[in-house]
Structure prediction request, 676 residues.
Amino acid sequence: MGIVVSLDGDRGRKPSLDPLSELVAEDLKAVNELIVQRMDSPVELIPQLAGHIIAAGGKRLRPMLTLASARMCGYSGTRHVALAACVEFLHTATLLHDDVVDESDLRRGLASANTLWGNKASVLVGDFLFSRSFELMVEDGSLEMLGILSNASAVIAEGEVMQLITANDTETSETAYLEVIQSKTAQLFAAACKIGAVVAERPRIEEEALDSFGMNLGIAFQMIDDVLDYSAKQATLGKSIGDDFKEGKMSLPVILSFRRGDDEDRAFWRRTVEDLDQNEGDFEHALHLMEKHTALEDSVERARHYGAIARDALGLFSDRAEKSAFNELIDFCIERAY
Amino acid sequence: MGIVVSLDGDRGRKPSLDPLSELVAEDLKAVNELIVQRMDSPVELIPQLAGHIIAAGGKRLRPMLTLASARMCGYSGTRHVALAACVEFLHTATLLHDDVVDESDLRRGLASANTLWGNKASVLVGDFLFSRSFELMVEDGSLEMLGILSNASAVIAEGEVMQLITANDTETSETAYLEVIQSKTAQLFAAACKIGAVVAERPRIEEEALDSFGMNLGIAFQMIDDVLDYSAKQATLGKSIGDDFKEGKMSLPVILSFRRGDDEDRAFWRRTVEDLDQNEGDFEHALHLMEKHTALEDSVERARHYGAIARDALGLFSDRAEKSAFNELIDFCIERAY
Prediction:
């Protein structure tokens, strides 16, 4: 099945998004154009607000997953462009609603939409993007795609509600945490990848392999994101460090620190995370406890586990540039913790 | 084309929803069962919160429109039940997001969901219901239905954003007001009716007739709703009177009073509605100005105009119990102002 060449590449180089970005650059440009076109509305506030959050842009990771998955599956048509735009619209709608929910002040290093325009506008423009996403899917015309993405949407919303319930609850288990991030983050990664196989009309085993790749990559990605909230320099991450702590989010580093701590430690977490009774120096003490219990390192270790599953999920695809870029993406998602 | 009988019925009787409710009672029971089944989730807060708002229930006007439209078009299948549930889910999602947006304290006479569970949960459970609605549409399997309803969703969101922009702006014109209520309310009425013709596979002229019936009925309905916010007894309406005034909503009675008023009147509206600088007695003064300028009566008069268009839109359907119930529904929507 083709010549097997080692595509691991320069082992010394820091893993990056670049190979993936370069592979899909042309397609992604088309996605961006479609996004700008479809977020338009005579109601000016809509393109203004949507444009703000979409242009701030982030990495466009999810649409890139769709584009590269389709190409890896040998797809040579153009439907994947609109489908990738659907995925990004769904993601942006979620972000807008998430910003309202979390009352976060920063998103990707810029003021978040709700700070600039208010919660009301963020909720409604989120709804608009959500609807636009479904309009685009309808235009694509595949009920299978619509099924995958509407189901992903429902699961994401369920995950967000779960997260809301577990927030400030120090009794949240690692299992519950895993369920939350699987739903609220990894489900869309999984759907984004799977539709690449579906649009290429590949057999079910490849659909499932890409679904699993996306799911496990998404879990690892979110775990590292949660680690970064306690370790990243704000400048590199583009979001406020310590936000999760301030909100009392029960992310993996907190769960591990709480469970590994003594009574005094647990009293600290209950006061700060459960009662949100936080004083100066508390965040530093939280970091100290995490260090004491190697909570950040071990969270990264857990992420590596899911990264490994994601890598194996790609095993049945023949070696192509996209596969290699996906493998580097897994490394990138994990290594950015350092 | 069948025997034409007068179905206008007891002219002396106060128009009510009863004939419509009785006609679709059986089907509506199936819709309610499907709704309960599909709002379920292992995340308990979801059925709790969704159940609260759906059970509070309101009149189920929109799903009844779908059910009766389908029957009026001679449809004898069962797809209209799930489609009616889709419509109600979309409506409920909008209500949940609307409650967050308006910071209203009462919805249908019960505490609103956001008061009980917080804004966060309302936004997310709204998203869940929205997604569930699309999942149901996908199961129905018609891309045409999906197109109608996803488009309606986008227009509703646009209308909500427009309303947000015009709030507190005393310069809002009657035309702008009309555009808002057409989008945020009437569009879903129109879609709910139209899909009845689509599911029955009726010719385009009937689809369009039902679309127009729903659109104009929806406009009349919202206009009266806005009148009721200045005239209804809280007990009969099941919502707080004066909410729109408190929020500075530029509804038709305010627009008419502002435009017909003198400088002193306008200064009053600017202070109370634009600056939201409201004191005791201001609401009563607002009512006084509306009386002076017959703003409420004339808003009802405007609603009658749209009611008349809705009635004529039904003209090309042969006389059936559903048509008669729809005609009474138009009267009911307008007469409830008294």
Remarks:
- Confidence is low (pLDDT under 50) at residues 1-9, 101-110 of chain B.
- The domain at 18-335 of chain B is CATH 1.10.600.10 (Farnesyl Diphosphate Synthase).
- Chain B touches chain A at residues 41-43, 45-46, 93-94, 97, 100-101, 119-121, 123-125, 127-128, 130-132, 134-135, 137-138, 141, 143, 146-147, 150-151, 153-154, 156-158, 160-162, 164-165 (CB under 8 Å).
- Chain B is about 75% helix and 0% strand.
